[in-house]
Design a protein that fits this description.
The chain has 170 residues and is mainly beta. It contains 2 helices and 10 strands. The termini are far apart. The model is unreliable at 3-21 (pLDDT under 50).
Length: 170
């Protein structure tokens, strides 16, 4: 075995022993973790959902599970979603993959939102087409330890409210 090959193997073995780089402390991600009740208006209908956030994969990602409380016609919840949140530790950009029962896809890019923290909010934007977007802005209220979500359809730069909801701890 040559010195170069031996050194390469040694470096690979050493790198394999390094722990994964966990995200630096992020107060907004930490404040999402827990059990919440979502109340408000979605598509002009009053609604209540249960929403749970938890760390996963060594605190590298956050998983959200959301289920509407209202029963659907077949007894199943009319809305259920799982979302996976991550953050690039170098750029600080957040990303979310949103999966729900309103339409199945093979991880279509339209189901991925991106955003950067702005104060106590994370404004995610989902780009559907060159002119159509969806905004889901998470706004944290430190005084009440609650969140507001502002969800807006955006067609050619014209935003129309889709939902206004508040999350309070259960």
């Amino acid at each position: 075995m040559t010195k170069t090959t031996g050194l390469s193997i040694l470096l690979l073995l050493a790198a394999a022993q390094l722990p994964a780089q966990s995200l630096p402390a992020d107060s907004l991600f930490d404040r999402l973790i827990g059990h919440w009740v979502l109340r408000g208006t979605i598509a002009r209908q009053s609604t209540t959902h249960d929403v749970d956030f938890e760390w996963m994969l060594g605190r590298e990602y956050v998983k959200m599970h959301e289920v509407s409380r209202e029963p659907g016609p077949n007894g199943a919840p009319p809305y259920e979603a799982v979302a996976l949140f991550g953050r690039d530790p170098r750029s600080g950009e957040y990303a979310v993959l949103w999966l729900d029962n309103t339409g199945a896809s093979a991880f279509d890019a339209a189901g991925i939102g991106r955003g950067k923290v702005a104060g106590d909010s994370i404004p995610f934007v989902f780009n559907y087409t060159a002119t159509d977007r969806f905004h889901n802005t998470f706004v944290y209220n430190r005084a009440t330890d609650s969140w507001q979500w502002h969800l807006d359809n955006d067609s050619s730069g014209v935003r129309r409210p889709f939902a206004r909801v508040t999350l309070t701890r259960r």
